[in-house]
Amino acid sequence: MAVNEIDKLIQLLGRVPGLGPRSARRAVLYLMKRRDQLMLPLAQAMQAAAEKIRACSECGNLDAQDPCAVCRDPERDRQSICVVEDVGDLWALERTSAFKGRYHVLGGTLSALDGRGPEQLNLDRLVRRVREQGVGEVILALSATVDGQTTAHYIAEKLTAHGVTVTRLAHGVPVGGELDYLDDGTLTAALNARK
Amino acid sequence: MAVNEIDKLIQLLGRVPGLGPRSARRAVLYLMKRRDQLMLPLAQAMQAAAEKIRACSECGNLDAQDPCAVCRDPERDRQSICVVEDVGDLWALERTSAFKGRYHVLGGTLSALDGRGPEQLNLDRLVRRVREQGVGEVILALSATVDGQTTAHYIAEKLTAHGVTVTRLAHGVPVGGELDYLDDGTLTAALNARK
């Protein structure tokens, strides 16, 4: 017997964070009633994004082109690189419009608990960028968690050997908070007061 | 400039009930990290469901085939039809496995506020099924709201002329429910229907 298309869709949709089995059922019924206005465009947008969007080979940002829009932009300051854990943090910073340099996405933090060491992060590429592109300042915009600050410390040690100024986000980031959840005003203030 | 694929996907996903703009962003990042395991299968399942799933011309249920699996099943009792507002209610009843007849999906209730009259509901088809298929019992499984009960009353009047038994779901204490939290109306109904 063929797998039921609806059950399959509900099961997959229920794995999306923010939706469980029950809300996935509701969502599928909602989508089925809006087949042409929402369901088909959403399916196509998802397919297109899955096929076209790749990680930028320069900074790790997600974009349909490589290098990404930020790395390609000639208006962006090539002197400063802002190091973030994840693309969501990069988006949060971009929404503030407070930073005019470029980014570097680590893809996580060092974590003893999760067994994530330096070699699992996008670190070698960062060191190479700093060395080869005459970067003057690296801003470490990492979460104010233990893992985030350990990672910041590790990167700062690694980079100061290359004669680059390493700064961190100012106090204002709540201890234990995640960047992605921060409001834009706090994020802007923290960026401006970096030291 | 081309529309950014990620922004488009976030915008569409944020319109799914249960997800807002912020959780849509998180969901997209989560999906992008699970491109092959989740994102592509989900896009394809959504496309397939949107293309293949149609309302059953017999009962209004959603299925890839017409008539739907319930209407096609020779094991189901053709003597009784359970009338529900929506496909979600049909699914809820199917999960109980307590009903062995067939269904009829109205597509809503009568509503003076929303301006929904009898002609907007899948009612003519129900009357025809009752008349032509020798149906013995019609169970009205409609919500215990004012609109739901108005609709049940309207359908009961319409159908008794065709010599069919019309029943409704019993009102009472939900199984596992605490008396203390029950509203007065339900408690009164449960008391009156004691056995």
UniProtKB/TrEMBL annotation, chains A, B:
Pfam families: RecR_C (PF21175), RecR_HhH (PF21176), RecR_ZnF (PF02132), Toprim_4 (PF13662)
Zinc fingers (C4-type), renumbered ranges: 56-71
Alphabetical list of Gene3D superfamilies matching this protein: 3.30.60.80, 3.40.1360.10, 6.10.250.240, RecR Domain 1
Keyword set includes Chloroplast: no
Ranges for domain Toprim: 79-174
InterPro entries: DNA_Rcmb_RecR, Rcmb_RecR, Rcmb_RecR_Znf, TOPRIM_dom, TOPRIM_RecR
Alphabetical UniProt keywords: DNA damage, DNA recombination, DNA repair, Metal-binding, Zinc, Zinc-finger
Isomerase keyword on record: no
Family: Belongs to the RecR family.
NCBIfam families according to UniProt: recR
Role: May play a role in DNA repair. It seems to be involved in an RecBC-independent recombinational process of DNA repair. It may act with RecF and RecO.
Name of this protein: Recombination protein RecR
Organism of provenance: Rhodovibrio sodomensis
